[in-house]
Specification:
Chain A is built from seven helices and 15 strands. Chain A has 276 residues and is α/β, with parallel strands linked by helices. Chain A has a single domain, classed as HUPs (Rossmann fold, 3-Layer(aba) Sandwich). In chain A, the strands form three sheets. Chain A has a nine-stranded mixed β-sheet with strand order 11-10-9-12-8-1-6-7-13, with helices on both faces. Chain A has a two-stranded antiparallel ribbon with strand order 2-5. Chain A has a two-stranded antiparallel sheet with strand order 3-4. Chain A is globular. Chain B has 331 residues and is an alpha/beta fold. Chain B folds into two domains: 175 residues, HUPs (Rossmann fold, 3-Layer(aba) Sandwich); 126 residues, TPP-binding domain (Rossmann fold, 3-Layer(aba) Sandwich). Chain B has ten helices and 18 strands. In chain B, the strands form four sheets. In chain B, strands 7-11-6-1-4-5-12 form a seven-stranded parallel β-sheet, sandwiched between helices. In chain B, strands 15-14-16-17-18 form a five-stranded parallel β-sheet. A three-stranded antiparallel β-sheet of chain B has the order 8-9-10. In chain B, α3 crosses α4 and α5 runs parallel beside α9. The mean pLDDT of chain B is 92. Classes of the chains: A alpha/beta (276), B alpha/beta (331). β11 of chain A pairs antiparallel with β13 of chain B.
Chain lengths: 276, 331
């Protein structure tokens, strides 16, 4: 394994896990009239896919040793997601929080995360969830890799091998399953299939409550980074309108009565529509 | 921004066969190019696939940029990215589209960062405003809302969901230009494919008929009731997330936001209440049939046909009635 300074391998890998705090998607309320959403209606939680990423990191650490640093960008409240990550096995947690990071699209988000990773230096593997449940773009991981100029493998469902030579991953793309060797350092995005995240113990939770979360602002990153590329300034895309998807065009025919009657009526309809 | 002109799409191939989403992109790309009065070009990377190149022209492209090189036979993110970035910098298209497939969603972000532009994920519609800007429409928050997005940099880049756009009818008389490009060969891309094998599992995203089960099922074994209906109709079995999380059925069967997005001709939701998580994965199905004991279940709001009843009674009855009338129903 060769880390990013190009020197000899870290026998014990330094792993970075990217994590986002998201609203519980099942609970978010929408104002269908105004087309707005009320984020306060739902409680915040770590993005579920990122917990798989963290668990993957913890499993590598259990095998090879090393450290896990969790990096998140978000509002100050995202601290709770990072505490959760510490309780689940991360060694160090960094929260990138600053009003100037706000309003970021994936380009600015990935730039900000990549700038923090550059500042951290010395890493062997970056692990992210395949996507977040709120943004659902799946773009930030590969974009971070491009900003850093390192290879990536997306949609990893299994890590077949990890040792000081590198990693061998299983990932699915379309109809095929690929066995891919990541020769030196790089980034992977993981699917839910990769593992079942463990729940933190009460003891670890209590310990994490007292741990330090490092807070980095724009000023902590600007040594080497361009502050115009953060937040809304650095975001080429913007949402200019929100609409509610129409459910028009659905026939909306409901059959009641005994199963016999309802089924018979439905099958009559089905015959008609399948013949068209 | 004035120097950026034309619409360019990425043609995805696997084993030398072009992925159907590539033709859908050309269909939409053609509409947009015509509206803007510009050319539609398409970039293809692969090895020894000459006949397929013409197909891209027959489906609407004016110009194909073809990189024919052994190093591009298999998808390699870095190698593909490098060549496409070179082309985008040379040709300066105002719009660049990829399919929102695994491949497109792995490749697109790297291209966007390398050419310093925005990328909108998983669009389900694309339009052009009065000033000629691209309006990118994508579902957000499990499909509860649709975000309309504009990009201030060029090219305006989007990945587009598979099976949403219409491809044009194949026209073998259509003429176009094929430009053979010299590939930049990246020796060490950092990754190396050791093995590639057919996933072999049910590909639920391709199925025309899906019979899905949810919490209304009482035990894992009861999926066989749904299998009977699916087999009869030549379909496959799907599932909502809770049952997959419980380990009752494999994740490849999962329909929903964190599973597969499907768009079959006929979708049966059996004992599925219709959480936003599930609806996000199947709301674009042609015909939705809901079977649920609770008449107020949200699934009925998106259904074409709803049967208020217990799936344990209704589904076997359906199998029975459709079985008897099989020739009639499935003619």
């Amino acid at each position: 394994m060769i880390h990013n300074s190009g020197e000899a391998a870290n026998e014990r890998p330094n792993i970075i896990v990217l994590l986002k705090q998201v609203p519980d998607i099942e609970e978010v309320k929408f104002d269908t009239e105004k087309g707005t959403l009320d984020r306060s209606s739902a409680k915040a939680e770590p993005n579920p896919f990122d917990l798989n990423a963290l668990e993957a990191g913890v499993q590598i650490k259990e095998k090879l040793g090393g450290t896990i640093t969790v990096v998140s960008m978000g509002p100050p409240q995202a601290e709770s997601a990072l505490r959760d990550a510490l309780a689940r096995g991360a060694d160090r947690a960094i929260l990138l929080t600053d009003k100037k990071f706000g309003g970021a699209d994936t380009l600015a988000t990935s730039y900000t995360l990549a700038s923090a990773i550059k500042k951290l230096g010395n890493f062997d593997l970056i692990i992210c969830g395949e996507k977040t449940v709120d943004g659902d773009t799946g773009q930030v991981g590969p974009e971070v890799a491009e900003h850093l100029g390192i290879p990536h493998v997306a949609y990893v469902s299994e890590i077949k091998k990890c040792d000081k030579e590198g990693f061998v991953t299983v990932s699915q793309m379309g109809e095929y399953r690929y066995l891919t060797e990541l020769k030196s350092f790089g980034l992977i995005t993981v699917t839910k299939d990769i593992n079942e995240p463990r729940l933190p113990s009460l003891r670890d939770k209590l310990k994490a409550r007292k741990s330090e979360i490092e807070i980095w602002s724009v000023d902590d990153l600007t040594n080497g980074a361009d502050r115009n590329k953060f937040g809304i300034m650095g975001s080429p895309t913007s949402v200019y309108k929100i609409t509610i998807p129409s459910v028009e065009g659905r026939r909306g025919k409901i059959f009641r009565g005994t199963p016999d009657e309802a089924t018979k009526k439905f099958v009559e309809e089905l015959e008609k529509i399948l013949k068209v | 921004m004035g120097e950026y002109k034309g619409v360019m799409t990425f043609a995805e191939q696997e084993d030398g066969k072009i992925h159907p989403v590539s033709y859908e992109l050309l269909g939409k790309g053609r509409d947009i190019a015509d509206k803007l009065g510009v050319k539609l070009s398409c970039v293809l990377l692969g090895f020894q696939m000459k006949n397929e190149v013409n197909e891209l022209i027959y489906h609407g492209a004016d110009k194909i940029f073809f990189y024919d090189h052994p190093s591009l036979k298999e998808f390699d993110t870095i190698r593909y990215k490098q060549n496409i970035v070179n082309l985008v910098k040379e040709e300066k298209p105002e719009i660049f589209l990829l399919g929102a497939t695994h491949l497109g969603r792995s490749l697109g972000p790297r291209i966007a960062v390398a050419v310093k532009t925005g990328l909108t994920a998983d669009c389900i519609d694309l339009k052009v405003d009065e000033e000629g800007n691209l309006i990118q429409i994508r579902p957000a928050f499990s499909g509860n809302i649709l975000a309309h997005i504009k990009t201030k940099t060029r090219p305006q880049m989007s990945t587009v969901r598979y099976k949403v756009m219409e491809k044009r009818e194949r026209d073998p008389t259509r003429k176009g230009e094929i430009i053979m490009k010299d590939a930049e060969v990246v020796e060490n891309s950092g990754t190396n494919i050791l093995k590639k094998e057919k996933a072999g599992e049910v590909n639920i995203t391709e199925a025309d008929i899906i019979v899905s089960g949810g919490r209304g099922l009482k035990k894992p074994d009861d999926f066989k009731i749904l299998h009977e209906l699916a087999d009869l109709l030549g379909g496959v079995v799907g599932s909502s997330r809770p049952l997959v999380d419980e380990g009752w059925i494999g994740r490849e069967h999962q329909v929903g936001f964190s599973g597969n997005t499907v768009k079959p001709k006929l979708y049966f939701a059996c004992g599925i209440s219709g959480s936003s998580q599930h609806l996000a994965g199947m709301r674009d199905s042609d015909i939705i049939v809901a079977i649920n004991t609770d008449p107020s279940a949200p699934i009925f709001k998106v259904a074409d046909y709803g049967i208020v009843g217990d799936l344990y009674e209704v589904v076997p009855k359906l199998v029975d009635v459709i079985g008897k009338n099989k020739n009639k129903v499935l003619s």
